[in-house]
Specification:
This protein has helices spanning 21-33, 67-70, 79-91, 103-115, 130-145, 162-167, 200-219, 245-255, 307-310, 326-341, 344-365, 394-406, 431-447, and strands at 46-50, 53-56, 61-64, 122-127, 149-153, 185-188, 224-229, 259-263, 287-290, 301-306, 369-375, 378-386, 389-392, 409-410, 412-414, 420-423. By secondary structure, the protein is of the alpha/beta class. The mean pLDDT is 97. It binds pyridoxal-5'-phosphate. Pyridoxal-5'-phosphate is lined by residues 129-131, 134, 157-159, 230, 234, 263, 265-266, 291. Pathway: Amino-acid degradation; 4-aminobutanoate degradation.
Length: 448
Amino acid sequence: MATTGPEIAQERRIVTEIPGPKSRALQERRLKAVAQGVGSSLPVYVERAGGGIVEDVDGNALIDFGAGIAVTNVGNANPLVVARAQEQLAKFTHTCFMVNPYEAYVDVCEALNRITPGDHEKRSILLNSGAEAVENAVKIARNATGRQAVVVFDHAYHGRTNLTMALTAKNMPYKQGFGPFAGEVYRMPMAYPFRWPTGAEECGPQAAAQAIEQITKQIGAENVAAVLIEPIQGEGGFIEPGAGFLPALVEFCRENGIVFIADEVQTGFARTGDMFACDHEGIVPDLITTAKGIAGGLPLAAVTGRAELMDAVHGGGLGGTYGGNPAACAAALAALETIESEKLVERARAIGETMLSRLRALAERYDIIGDVRGRGAMIAIELVAGAGDKTPNTAALAEIVRYCHSQGLVLLTAGTYGNVIRMLPPLVIGDDLLNEGLDILAEAFARL
Ligand SMILES: *Cc1c(COP(=O)(O)O)cnc(C)c1O
């Protein structure tokens, strides 16, 4: 077995109904202890996980098409990640980098500066969550430009803190009742090929022209600190912007002194079949935010960007007590080493080819599959009423997800209209489990 291979059997095993009796008992305790605002897509309580398997407290082994929302790219409890984090934990657990620094923090920043798009001089800062990274990127862009306006897009998701709620598009459940929201945030149309009125071909250039026109007329380019976008939207439903959209925005930003921020919290670290989704169209962002896939499951996030922007902020202006925790840094270095040594970028591409070809074949048979999209191991299907009718089909979605869950396939949903099934398997999942998961999904359609 490879040193980074999973330690639990890579086989689906269903021994109780899902969720089983132990999970249901825990769920009862939970409802009396945990605030109900925190949901769980599948309340199956976890005992162990690794490779493409999540094992629950009842002894069921589920196929993992979620990776903890694109986090455990290198596999859950990846042995190298665990070993390095344990080694670090035994030495010291925390000093606060702002009090006494340590080498692992510097190592992670060097690694991020090396692997993120562009070969310009870069700096990084480490934080705890994706939302915190996005907040810091906006702070840096505003400070460096002396401007205030931030441009975001329809269907965007950037987090749940006050500023990132403002940056996020969807009201329910993320914003409802949580206002007032931060100001100077402007939302533009997104290049959403499947729903673009004049068709997918024209989507990229037309959407870019619209966005640029609105920015110019409604805000004034000289007032814009940053344009912030996910290069493939995550929660929004894996919307891959029409070709040419991102390059046109980058060009507009360059011409107008606007900081282009790529939020790669979900798309980063080999997930899309490139190290970063920006690499696909050769986009070089001024700032890039990362989190989820960075450290094999330990909480860590970062902003990486042009040295002159990052260093524009005065000393003490950035930081946080826990940002760049030493165990999380050790885990990140192990995860990055694994991505490179196990060639997970290539693996993500192969996963994508398998998924896309099988899902496109399904789409030929079932006209409620309106769109199959995504790149690498970040693939979604959008469910609609039928051929020629793009009305979101949330009823079919609920039925399909319910069936897949009952068969032990962990599947997530997404989308502004709540009609997208998203698949984010760990990149170390084997072909057998990948195909078995897709078989279950095919059965779900056949039974509808
Ligand atoms: C998940 C996500 C965030 C927020 O990250 P948290 O770690 O949950 O705060 C921000 N941006 C994108 C694109 C995300 O997918």
